[in-house]
Design goal:
The chain has about 425 residues and is α+β, with helices and mostly antiparallel strands. It has twelve helices and 23 strands. Bound molecules: flavin-adenine dinucleotide (FAD). The site of flavin-adenine dinucleotide has 32 residues, from helix 1, strand 2, strand 3, strand 9 and strand 13. This is FAD-binding domain-containing protein.
Length: about 425
């Protein structure tokens, strides 16, 4: 059999992780990325244990740990100092933890790993893909590079070009809409007044929410520990956030009335000429698909299932997609051929229920933190403290945050994802019966 050649569109978390796994198994991969240099900007993010299991499988966990910030749990405070959310990974399983990481660090760790398989990788930076055509034995991609049109053929394509993808097959898209709320965010030096192993959140009803996430260091400045600050806002208000002195004062007063210690820290940052933090906006999309792949076309990462980052699962899901795709490919690569229908059957078996579970929960919970509904925050403040008193719910909440859930009563096995033995890492599921979709 000739070595399969995959095209991956988009060098984000999903695209890079998948490229490593495909190249490691001896496949050829061409990565198309629209920007001319990978220098990811964006708020830091929290990799949950499920994502870290994939990191272990990829062989990049140790490197990520040297730069990122180990996070042991999530604490969400109300204005009266009560903890509304108090979830710690050890409640799910003793050895679990999360990792706050800067996007450029995440990209650095993945591209470093990818460079080990360079003979199987072709980079096409500054190449934007506009459309694709599926033929019986190949996929043809059409795009442009510096105003020059090009087209190229591959055995299969993975669309990993993020939440705003225009390439995912329209017939598979059930929902594709913007959220009415987003967040302003900035990267700042770590807050020494707060526990550096905790993602801290602050809420007042469903209208005010702030997050402070330790994200560790970036490769070029390994000594400087950083944090990402998030401030939730309706999208219409994002462009004017902190644009003048008056709005800075109003914001600091809003925080100070509720959480004075944090306001003091923010004040020092805002008025420190050496730091001068830049505030940027993040807007979210909700994307639901009826299927993630068929034949020679697959959709992974945010392109397949973008959602509000309320549960902090997007990058984890992208990593789990990469893992599930490589497992499914190995299973379907039999008798000198790839059985595409078996591949997608297996992939959907792994990814559909988990994705549905987190998308459902994200839709349910997001309005409790980010909406104008008068009842949302009150309902949340009544129900959550009650739930946290019951050990069963505390544990379930920790497993959910860990990204390991595949349904209300099922979960993934961290070790099964993390393990990697060369040429023997196909899941022992070849004899399992596969459900029909
Ligand atoms: C404020 C905020 C906080 C978040 N916090 C968390 C968190 O704590 N934990 C977590 O797990 N997730 C978090 N997320 C979600 C996470 O960032 C995403 O889920 C994840 O980055 C998705 O990765 P991806 O590879 O699918 O897409 P992306 O990272 O968007 O990558 C897509 C790539 O495709 C390229 N591209 C686009 N179109 C084309 C084209 N036509 N041709 C070629 N290239 C193209 C883009 O340039 C880009 O490089 C957060 C998101 C936001 C906005």
């Amino acid at each position: 059999m000739k070595t399969p050649h995959f095209a991956i569109i988009g060098a984000g978390t999903a695209g890079l992780a998948t490229a490593i796994l495909l190249a490691r198994e001896g496949n050829n991969v061409t990565i198309f990325e629209q920007v001319d240099e990978l220098s990811p900007v964006g708020a830091g993010l929290l990799l949950q244990p499920a994502g870290l299991a994939v990191f272990e499988h990829l062989g990049v966990l140790d490197e990520a740990l040297t730069l990122g910030a180990k996070v042991t749990g999530l604490e969400g405070q109300l204005p009266d100092k009560r903890l509304l959310v108090n979830s710690h990974y050890h409640e799910a399983s003793t050895n679990l933890y999360g990792l706050g990481i800067h996007r450029s660090t995440l990209c650095h760790v993945l591209t470093q790993k990818l460079s080990q398989y360079s003979s199987h990788i072709t980079w096409r930076m500054n190449h934007t893909i506009e459309r694709l055509e599926e033929h019986p034995n190949e996929i043809r991609l059409f795009g442009f590079n510096q105003n020059q049109k090009f087209d190229d053929c591959f055995d299969a394509v993975l669309i990993a070009n993020g939440a705003r993808s225009q390439l995912r097959p329209k017939a598979w898209v059930k929902v594709d809409q913007a959220y009415p709320w987003g967040a302003a965010w900035s990267i700042v030096p770590e807050c020494l007044a707060l526990n550096p192993q905790i993602l801290h959140q602050f809420y007042d009803r469903s209208k005010i929410m702030m997050g402070i996430l330790p994200t560790g260091a970036i490769p070029s400045e390994p000594e400087q520990r950083l944090a990402s600050v998030f401030w939730s806002l309706p999208t219409a208000q994002l462009p004017t956030f902190l644009k003048d002195e008056q709005s800075k004062q109003t914001w600091l007063n809003q925080v100070s009335e509720r959480w004075p210690d944090v306001a003091e820290w923010l004040k020092q940052i805002l008025y420190n000429n050496q730091i001068q933090p830049k505030w940027l906006s993040a807007q979210y999309r909700d994307v639901v698909m009826t299927q993630f792949g068929q034949g020679r076309i697959g959709v992974i990462g945010d392109a397949a299932h973008a959602m509000s980052p309320q549960l902090g699962q997007g990058a984890n899901m992208a990593l789990l997609d990469a893992w599930a795709f490589s497992q499914s490919l190995q299973l379907a690569q039999k008798n000198q051929n790839i059985d595409w229908s078996l591949l997608w059957q297996h992939y959907h078996q792994h990814r559909r229920s988990s994705t549905q579970f987190y998308q459902f929960l994200s839709r349910l919970l997001t309005p409790l933190y980010q909406s104008d509904h008068w009842w949302a925050g009150g309902l949340r403040d009544l129900v959550f403290p009650w739930m946290y008193q019951i050990p069963y719910f505390r544990k379930e909440m920790a497993i959910t945050v860990s990204g390991l859930k595949t349904g209300p009563f099922q979960q993934l096995d961290y070790q099964k994802i993390a393990q990697y033995c060369e040429k023997e890492n196909v899941l022992n599921s070849k004899s399992e019966s596969l459900p029909d979709y």
